[in-house]
# Entry
Amino acid sequence: MKKIFKNQIALALAGILAGTSAVAGTLVINGDTSDPAPKAAFQAVIDGFEAENPDVDVVYNLFDHEGYKAAIRNFLSADAPDIAFWYAGNRMAPFVEAGLFAPIDDVWADQGLYSLMASSAPGMTMDGKKWGIPYTYYNWGVYYRQDIFEDLGISVPTNWDEFIAAGETLKANGITPITIGTKYLWTAGGVFDYLNLRTNGYDFHMALTSGDIAWTDDRVRATMANYQQLIDGGFFLENHAALSWQEALAPMANGEAAMYVMGNFAVAPLKELGLDDSSLGLFQFPAITPGVPMAEEAPTDTIHLTAGAKNVADAKRFLAYAARPDVQTAWNKALGQLPTNAGAGVTDDKFLNQAFSMLNNDAPGGVAQFYDRDTKAEMASIGMEAFQEFMVKPERLEKILERLEKARQKLY
Amino acid sequence: MYSYWKNNQLKIAPWIFLAPGIFMFSLYVIFPIFQSINLSFYQWDGLGAKTYIGAENYIELLDDEYFIVSLKNNVIWLVLYLLAVPAGLFAALFLNQTVRGIRIYKSIFFFPFVISQVVVGLVFSWFYDPSNGLLNIILEFFGFDTIAILAEEDYVTYGIIAAGLWPQTAYCMILYLTGLNSVDPEQIEAGRIDNARGWRMLWYVILPQLKPATFIAVVVTIIGALRSFDLIDIMTGGGPWGSSRVLAYYMYEKAFSEYGFRMGYGAAIAVVLLLIMMVYIATILYRLYQDEKGS
# Structure
C-alpha cells in the first residue's frame, strides 16, 4: 500500500525472466519483502526451513514491493513459482477465480489450523476451500500523543461524544485533532472503514464493500454524516491532499497534531521522529452507534501455493513450516507485527500487546482486511478517491455518492 | 535471376537496406497499434479469457467523467506547453552573445533538460509544499495566504505544467541556439543598412531563418505534452481525486496500476490518444513530404 514510484512494466518483464524453471528438490518462491526488516525476516525463515529440510534448495526471487503487484499477474500465468506472496480477502479473488492459486485444505487439516488460525480463516476461504497460509497481520487504531492528552486532562475517548469533545479541547489549545495525508488515498479509506464499522457494524460494512448495498443507502449517509461532522469541525490536518502518510507524521511528532488513524507500521517511524512509549499511545476507535459490536481492521499478508507449481510436495512442506507457531513467533518478532497462529507468542512490546488484546478480546464484531482489500480493486480506487474529494469538498456529497453508486452497478 | 538483379539493382537495393528497419518498426510499433485497437473491443482482466463486447468500452468512455477530465487536461497541456517555444526562443536570443564564460551560462540554462523528469517533479513538489515550500514562504512574506497548489483541483494541472515547462524551455532553447548559429550575417547586415532593429529585425529577418528550428521545437513540444506522464506520477499520482490526470496516465491506471487491470478499457483510452496524436503526426508527415517535393 505504501506507494513508491517504480517502473512497474519493467518489473513485470523482469518477473517473466526471473521465474526459474525448477528441478526436483528446488523450491521456487516469489515474494515482495523488499523493505529491510521483512527481507531479513523472511531470509531467516528460508534458512530455518533449509536447515530442517536439507534435501530442499529454496530459490527466492525478490521483487520490489510495488512492482510485485503488477509482476504477479504475469509470472502466475507465464512461469509460475511454487509459492507466491499475496494478501487475504477479496484481493486474492481474481487469482482464485482464474485458477492460478491452488487450495491447500490438506495443509490446514494436518497442522490443525482450522482452530489455530480461526480468526484469519474467513479471509482465506473461497468456495469453501482454503487458498493460502496467513503469516502475519497488523492492527489499525488511533495512535495518539499520550503526553498531550495528559497535559490537557483529556481521557481516552470511548464513545463519539467524548471523541468530539476531546477534539474540541485540542482545537481550543491550537492543536489539530487528527493528522492525515491523503495524497495516496488509502489513508482516507481507513478513516471511512472505521466510521462505517462503528456506525453500521461489521456485517453492513462487508456487505457494502462486497457491492451488495447501494452507496445512496441511508445507512451510508449516516456514516458520511459522521465523517462530515469531523470535516466541518476542522478535525483533520489542513492540506492533507498534498501530503503522503509519512509527511503527515511530522505534525504529530512535533506536537501540532494529536491523533492519527493508522496501522501499526506508523509506530516505528514515529519513534524515529523522537516519540517513545510515554508520549505515544494507542486506543481503539471509539464507539459511535451504541450497541454495534466493535470491529477492527487488521490486514493479513499471506503465502500461496500456485496452480502451476512444479514442486507441490516441498511447497506444502514449506507452507506447513510457515504456519508453525514457533516459526511465526520468530518471523513476527522480526517484522514487529502479529502472528496469525493463536499458538504463537507475541513480542513483548507496548503496542503489540495492546493490539493483540484489542483484536482478540475487544473486536467481537469481526476483523476487516482494509477498504482496498475488501472491495474489488477498481471500486477501491474510485471509492478512496471519492473519500479524499469528500474530505476537501464535503458539499459535493450527493454527487460523490451517486458516482460511487454508478460505479457499483457497473462493477458488480 | 542474375540478370533480373542486374536490371533492377537500383530499385531493389534501397528496400534491402530498409528491410531490417521496416521489420523492427512493424513488429514493435505497427503491430502493437493494431493489437491495441483489437483489444479495445474486448473485456479482459489480463488473466482470464477475453470477452468480445463490441464498442462498449468506447460507449463507457463517453459517460466517464474521469475520462472527460483527463481529455480536458490534455488540451490544457497541449496549449500551455507550447509556451516553451517562445520562452526557449528568448532564452536563446539572450544567451546568443559573446561574453566571457557564456558557455557556462548556456550549460546552466540547459541543465534542467539533462536531469531526469523524476528529479524535476520532486524539486517542484518541494517548491509547492504547503508547509515548507519556497513558494509559500515567499507568498507569506508578502502577506498572502499559503496555497497547496498540488492539492487544489483548479490549480494542480497548471502547477505540473509549470514544472514541465522548465526542462522543455531548455530543450527549445538549445534548438534555437543551434539555429541562431546558422543565421546568415550578411542578411542581418543588409537589415541594419535598411534600418531594421529590435522587434522588426527579429520578426522579419531572424525568425524566418529560424523556421526549421521553430518547426522542430513545436513538434517535440506537442509530442512532449501528449506524452506527459512522469511528472504527473511523481507530483500528484493523478490527484487530488483524479483532477490532474491526462489520457496517458488514465490509460496506465486503468490497465496496469494496482487497482486497474481493465486491459480493454485501457486500450480504448490508448486508441483515443493515438487518434489525437495522429492529427499532429499526419500534419507533420504531410509538411515533410511537401518540403521534400519542393526541393
